[in-house]
Amino acid sequence: MKKEMEETRKLSDMIKLIKTLRAPDGCPWDRQQKKEDIGKYLLEESYEVVDALANQDSQALKEELGDLLFQILFLSAICAESNLFSLNDVMEEISKKMIRRHPHVFGDTTVNSVQDVKDNWQRIKQDERKDKSLFEGIPRSFPALKRAQKITSIASTLGFDWSDVHGVLKKHEEEIRELDVALKTGDRNKMEEELGDVLFTIVNLSRFLSVDAETALSKTTEKFLRRFSHVTEGLASRGLKPEEATLEQMDALWNEAKNKD
Length: 261
Prior knowledge:
- This protein is mainly α.
- The protein is 76% helix and 0% strand.
- The chain is built from twelve helices and no strands.
- Helix 3 packs antiparallel against helix 4.
Protein backbone atom coordinates (compact mmCIF):
# COMPACT_ATOMS: atom_id res chain seq x y z
CA MET A 1 0.00 0.00 0.00
CA LYS A 2 2.86 2.38 0.86
CA LYS A 3 4.42 1.80 -2.54
CA GLU A 4 1.09 2.46 -4.29
CA MET A 5 0.68 5.70 -2.37
CA GLU A 6 4.19 6.76 -3.37
CA GLU A 7 3.45 6.04 -7.03
CA THR A 8 0.23 8.09 -6.79
CA ARG A 9 2.14 10.97 -5.22
CA LYS A 10 4.78 10.91 -7.96
CA LEU A 11 2.08 10.92 -10.63
CA SER A 12 0.50 13.93 -8.92
CA ASP A 13 3.91 15.65 -8.81
CA MET A 14 4.38 15.03 -12.53
CA ILE A 15 0.99 16.58 -13.31
CA LYS A 16 1.91 19.63 -11.22
CA LEU A 17 5.23 19.88 -13.06
CA ILE A 18 3.42 19.93 -16.42
CA LYS A 19 1.02 22.61 -15.16
CA THR A 20 4.02 24.69 -14.11
CA LEU A 21 5.60 24.30 -17.53
CA ARG A 22 2.34 25.35 -19.19
CA ALA A 23 1.69 28.27 -16.85
CA PRO A 24 1.98 31.90 -18.10
CA ASP A 25 5.35 32.24 -16.34
CA GLY A 26 6.44 28.73 -17.37
CA CYS A 27 8.39 27.53 -20.40
CA PRO A 28 7.64 29.41 -23.67
CA TRP A 29 8.18 26.24 -25.75
CA ASP A 30 5.91 24.08 -23.57
CA ARG A 31 3.22 26.77 -23.50
CA GLN A 32 3.00 26.96 -27.28
CA GLN A 33 2.54 23.21 -27.78
CA LYS A 34 -0.84 22.10 -29.11
CA LYS A 35 -2.32 18.63 -28.91
CA GLU A 36 -1.62 18.06 -32.62
CA ASP A 37 2.09 18.74 -31.97
CA ILE A 38 2.39 15.93 -29.45
CA GLY A 39 1.57 13.17 -31.96
CA LYS A 40 5.04 13.02 -33.47
CA TYR A 41 6.66 12.94 -30.03
CA LEU A 42 4.42 10.07 -28.96
CA LEU A 43 5.53 8.08 -32.00
CA GLU A 44 9.21 8.87 -31.45
CA GLU A 45 9.10 7.93 -27.78
CA SER A 46 7.15 4.74 -28.54
CA TYR A 47 9.79 3.63 -31.04
CA GLU A 48 12.53 4.38 -28.50
CA VAL A 49 10.73 2.21 -25.94
CA VAL A 50 10.61 -0.62 -28.48
CA ASP A 51 14.35 -0.18 -29.20
CA ALA A 52 15.15 -0.40 -25.50
CA LEU A 53 13.11 -3.60 -25.27
CA ALA A 54 14.87 -5.10 -28.28
CA ASN A 55 18.27 -4.23 -26.79
CA GLN A 56 17.22 -5.66 -23.41
CA ASP A 57 18.51 -2.46 -21.81
CA SER A 58 16.56 -2.00 -18.58
CA GLN A 59 18.08 1.40 -17.80
CA ALA A 60 17.19 2.73 -21.25
CA LEU A 61 13.74 1.16 -20.97
CA LYS A 62 13.11 2.95 -17.67
CA GLU A 63 14.17 6.26 -19.21
CA GLU A 64 12.17 5.82 -22.42
CA LEU A 65 9.05 4.74 -20.55
CA GLY A 66 9.37 7.94 -18.55
CA ASP A 67 9.61 9.98 -21.74
CA LEU A 68 6.55 8.24 -23.17
CA LEU A 69 4.58 8.68 -19.94
CA PHE A 70 5.45 12.38 -19.92
CA GLN A 71 4.04 12.84 -23.43
CA ILE A 72 0.82 11.05 -22.46
CA LEU A 73 0.40 13.22 -19.37
CA PHE A 74 1.33 16.34 -21.32
CA LEU A 75 -1.28 15.63 -23.99
CA SER A 76 -3.90 14.89 -21.32
CA ALA A 77 -3.11 18.22 -19.66
CA ILE A 78 -3.57 20.10 -22.94
CA CYS A 79 -6.96 18.42 -23.44
CA ALA A 80 -7.98 19.26 -19.88
CA GLU A 81 -7.11 22.93 -20.48
CA SER A 82 -9.57 22.93 -23.40
CA ASN A 83 -12.23 21.18 -21.27
CA LEU A 84 -12.22 18.18 -23.61
CA PHE A 85 -11.50 15.63 -20.88
CA SER A 86 -9.22 15.13 -17.88
CA LEU A 87 -6.59 12.55 -17.00
CA ASN A 88 -9.16 11.01 -14.63
CA ASP A 89 -11.50 10.59 -17.60
CA VAL A 90 -8.73 8.84 -19.54
CA MET A 91 -8.00 6.42 -16.71
CA GLU A 92 -11.68 5.75 -16.06
CA GLU A 93 -12.30 5.03 -19.75
CA ILE A 94 -9.42 2.54 -20.06
CA SER A 95 -10.41 0.83 -16.79
CA LYS A 96 -13.95 0.32 -18.05
CA LYS A 97 -12.65 -1.00 -21.36
CA MET A 98 -10.29 -3.52 -19.73
CA ILE A 99 -13.06 -4.80 -17.46
CA ARG A 100 -15.46 -5.04 -20.41
CA ARG A 101 -12.94 -6.91 -22.56
CA HIS A 102 -11.94 -9.38 -19.82
CA PRO A 103 -15.30 -11.02 -19.03
CA HIS A 104 -13.43 -14.21 -18.10
CA VAL A 105 -11.78 -12.28 -15.24
CA PHE A 106 -14.45 -9.77 -14.22
CA GLY A 107 -17.52 -11.69 -15.38
CA ASP A 108 -18.80 -15.24 -15.71
CA THR A 109 -17.38 -16.05 -19.16
CA THR A 110 -15.36 -19.26 -19.34
CA VAL A 111 -12.24 -19.57 -21.52
CA ASN A 112 -10.12 -22.63 -22.19
CA SER A 113 -7.19 -21.13 -24.06
CA VAL A 114 -5.38 -17.95 -25.01
CA GLN A 115 -7.12 -18.18 -28.39
CA ASP A 116 -10.49 -18.05 -26.62
CA VAL A 117 -9.37 -14.82 -24.94
CA LYS A 118 -8.30 -13.34 -28.29
CA ASP A 119 -11.57 -14.37 -29.95
CA ASN A 120 -13.61 -12.83 -27.12
CA TRP A 121 -11.56 -9.65 -27.28
CA GLN A 122 -12.13 -9.27 -31.02
CA ARG A 123 -15.85 -10.02 -30.74
CA ILE A 124 -16.32 -7.48 -27.95
CA LYS A 125 -14.30 -4.93 -29.90
CA GLN A 126 -16.50 -5.47 -32.95
CA ASP A 127 -19.65 -5.04 -30.82
CA GLU A 128 -18.25 -1.75 -29.53
CA ARG A 129 -17.71 -0.57 -33.10
CA LYS A 130 -20.88 -2.03 -34.63
CA ASP A 131 -21.86 1.34 -36.09
CA LYS A 132 -18.37 1.93 -37.49
CA SER A 133 -16.16 0.41 -40.15
CA LEU A 134 -14.42 -2.78 -39.05
CA PHE A 135 -11.08 -1.19 -39.84
CA GLU A 136 -11.77 2.29 -38.50
CA GLY A 137 -9.76 1.69 -35.33
CA ILE A 138 -6.53 0.94 -37.22
CA PRO A 139 -4.55 4.18 -37.49
CA ARG A 140 -3.31 5.31 -40.89
CA SER A 141 -0.16 6.44 -39.08
CA PHE A 142 0.77 2.81 -38.35
CA PRO A 143 3.84 1.52 -40.20
CA ALA A 144 2.59 -0.03 -43.46
CA LEU A 145 3.52 -3.60 -42.53
CA LYS A 146 1.84 -3.43 -39.12
CA ARG A 147 -1.28 -1.78 -40.57
CA ALA A 148 -1.59 -4.46 -43.25
CA GLN A 149 -1.17 -7.24 -40.68
CA LYS A 150 -3.83 -5.73 -38.39
CA ILE A 151 -6.29 -5.34 -41.28
CA THR A 152 -5.82 -8.88 -42.57
CA SER A 153 -6.13 -10.26 -39.03
CA ILE A 154 -9.56 -8.65 -38.70
CA ALA A 155 -10.61 -9.89 -42.14
CA SER A 156 -9.50 -13.37 -41.10
CA THR A 157 -11.88 -13.40 -38.11
CA LEU A 158 -14.73 -12.91 -40.60
CA GLY A 159 -13.69 -15.95 -42.62
CA PHE A 160 -11.99 -14.01 -45.43
CA ASP A 161 -8.74 -15.94 -45.44
CA TRP A 162 -6.86 -18.89 -46.89
CA SER A 163 -7.44 -22.27 -45.31
CA ASP A 164 -3.74 -22.90 -44.71
CA VAL A 165 -0.26 -21.49 -45.31
CA HIS A 166 0.06 -23.33 -48.64
CA GLY A 167 -2.70 -21.14 -50.04
CA VAL A 168 -0.71 -18.04 -49.08
CA LEU A 169 2.44 -19.43 -50.71
CA LYS A 170 0.50 -20.17 -53.89
CA LYS A 171 -0.84 -16.60 -53.89
CA HIS A 172 2.69 -15.29 -53.39
CA GLU A 173 3.89 -17.20 -56.44
CA GLU A 174 1.00 -15.74 -58.44
CA GLU A 175 1.89 -12.19 -57.36
CA ILE A 176 5.55 -12.71 -58.24
CA ARG A 177 4.53 -13.77 -61.75
CA GLU A 178 2.35 -10.67 -62.09
CA LEU A 179 5.23 -8.49 -60.90
CA ASP A 180 7.47 -10.09 -63.53
CA VAL A 181 4.92 -9.19 -66.22
CA ALA A 182 4.79 -5.60 -64.92
CA LEU A 183 8.59 -5.35 -65.01
CA LYS A 184 8.57 -6.26 -68.67
CA THR A 185 6.09 -3.48 -69.47
CA GLY A 186 8.24 -0.82 -67.82
CA ASP A 187 5.07 0.81 -66.42
CA ARG A 188 6.16 2.26 -63.05
CA ASN A 189 2.60 2.56 -61.71
CA LYS A 190 1.92 -1.08 -62.56
CA MET A 191 5.23 -2.17 -61.03
CA GLU A 192 4.40 -0.29 -57.84
CA GLU A 193 0.96 -1.89 -57.68
CA GLU A 194 2.26 -5.42 -58.22
CA LEU A 195 5.13 -4.95 -55.75
CA GLY A 196 2.55 -3.78 -53.20
CA ASP A 197 0.59 -6.99 -53.82
CA VAL A 198 3.74 -9.05 -53.23
CA LEU A 199 4.44 -7.25 -49.95
CA PHE A 200 0.81 -7.61 -48.85
CA THR A 201 0.98 -11.36 -49.47
CA ILE A 202 4.21 -11.59 -47.46
CA VAL A 203 2.42 -9.85 -44.57
CA ASN A 204 -0.29 -12.51 -44.77
CA LEU A 205 2.41 -15.19 -44.72
CA SER A 206 3.86 -13.59 -41.58
CA ARG A 207 0.44 -13.70 -39.94
CA PHE A 208 -0.01 -17.40 -40.79
CA LEU A 209 3.40 -18.12 -39.25
CA SER A 210 2.47 -16.07 -36.13
CA VAL A 211 5.38 -13.74 -36.89
CA ASP A 212 5.10 -9.97 -36.57
CA ALA A 213 6.08 -8.65 -40.02
CA GLU A 214 7.37 -5.34 -38.66
CA THR A 215 9.61 -7.07 -36.11
CA ALA A 216 10.88 -9.62 -38.63
CA LEU A 217 11.88 -6.92 -41.12
CA SER A 218 13.49 -4.80 -38.39
CA LYS A 219 15.60 -7.76 -37.26
CA THR A 220 16.67 -8.48 -40.84
CA THR A 221 17.60 -4.82 -41.34
CA GLU A 222 19.75 -4.93 -38.19
CA LYS A 223 21.35 -8.14 -39.47
CA PHE A 224 22.15 -6.41 -42.78
CA LEU A 225 23.73 -3.47 -40.94
CA ARG A 226 25.82 -5.82 -38.81
CA ARG A 227 27.07 -7.79 -41.82
CA PHE A 228 27.69 -4.73 -43.97
CA SER A 229 29.69 -3.20 -41.12
CA HIS A 230 31.93 -6.28 -41.28
CA VAL A 231 32.29 -5.73 -45.03
CA THR A 232 33.33 -2.08 -44.68
CA GLU A 233 35.72 -2.88 -41.81
CA GLY A 234 37.29 -5.69 -43.82
CA LEU A 235 37.76 -3.43 -46.82
CA ALA A 236 39.22 -0.68 -44.63
CA SER A 237 41.80 -3.12 -43.26
CA ARG A 238 42.92 -3.60 -46.86
CA GLY A 239 43.03 0.09 -47.53
CA LEU A 240 39.88 0.04 -49.65
CA LYS A 241 36.64 2.01 -49.63
CA PRO A 242 33.42 0.19 -50.64
CA GLU A 243 33.20 2.13 -53.90
CA GLU A 244 36.75 1.02 -54.74
CA ALA A 245 36.15 -2.69 -54.08
CA THR A 246 34.83 -5.31 -56.46
CA LEU A 247 31.55 -7.08 -55.85
CA GLU A 248 33.50 -10.33 -55.44
CA GLN A 249 35.56 -8.80 -52.60
CA MET A 250 32.46 -7.54 -50.85
CA ASP A 251 30.66 -10.86 -51.32
CA ALA A 252 33.59 -12.72 -49.74
CA LEU A 253 33.50 -10.47 -46.67
CA TRP A 254 29.71 -10.71 -46.55
CA ASN A 255 29.93 -14.51 -46.44
CA GLU A 256 32.48 -14.24 -43.61
CA ALA A 257 29.99 -12.17 -41.63
CA LYS A 258 27.18 -14.56 -42.50
CA ASN A 259 29.17 -17.54 -41.20
CA LYS A 260 29.69 -15.70 -37.89
CA ASP A 261 25.92 -15.25 -37.30
